[in-house]
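Support request, please re-run this one:
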Amino acid sequence: MSKINEELMIKSVRFSNRLGMSPMCQYSAVNGFATDWHMVHYGSRAVGGVGLILLEATAVAPEGRITPYDLGLWDDAQIDGLKKITDFIHAHGAVAGIQIAHAGRKASHDSPVNGSAQLSPDQGGWATVAPSALPFDANETPPTELDEKGITEVVEQFREAALRSLKAGFKVLEIHAAHGYLIHEFYSPLSNKRTDGYGRSFENRIRLLLEIVEAVQTVWPTDLPLFVRLSATDWTLGGWTLDETVRLCEILRVKGVDLIDCSTGGNVAAARIPVGPGYQVAFAEAVRNTGIMTSAVGLITTAGGAQYRYYDFGGRIDYYGCASEFYFAKRKGRYGVVGTRTVAPTLFCTLSR
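Re-run finished. Output below.
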């Protein structure tokens, strides 16, 4: 039997298999609140037999949204709508997890179906923040550099969102520290030009992530899994590297993080990424050699006509993250199967911008 079909225990949580639905922005929330769309979207995948469903990047603050249509957990009133979704997911045998995030300088953009352009305040957007006043794209308005008070507020926003996630019934929490969003912007030397205690050295650049992990752990139960998603490389000379990722993961393991969700890129608009089947698995394997569990995302499939099957990476990773393929197969999960290919709606995005 393929490893993907094996059960997995992480702390007190049992996953029926090692296939998970990775976070995908739906751009369907209203003022951060979940809608019927989210219930149908996530509920239908739970019925399909997937082991873990990680909800999309959910903003810890209104200004941390990628678009005005992102899910949020900055308000207690947002808990009830998500609780209905987690109850349904758990009733059908899957585990509900959530990814909490702050988009940093990549916030305040229109949805992909509208072109993803940066939105000005008079267009319904807002001022963005980052470690340094460097825009993601040269044509965009530069973000405001966070001062230490602002950094402290961000850490507290993650802590509060983690507590709300628990109240909403989630059993897995993932901190989004990848894809060029705020935490990644801090640890990458390409976007962090600070000269204070959050800049220059490796230790200073990873400081925000470590502070967020420690803050979240004050409210997230020790018997529930804590994941961190990282971009293992910037794919750009002078940027964040795999060696630095490995060093960081050794620290995160000691601090009690259970699994690293390995991705790459997202912080450099012009980066050239050599995309191919399982192209990020080698990064996850390098991280796994530190002794921490890993997952990999990014073309974890083979395509053959109208059918799709999952790769078995021979124990190189612990958990298989799949995203867009859930739109190409009507039903995937327990046996890694196969469905009839359908057209993927243009609404969805695995790696926003």
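Residues 302-313, 330-353 have pLDDT under 50 and may be disordered. The chain has one domain: 3-328.
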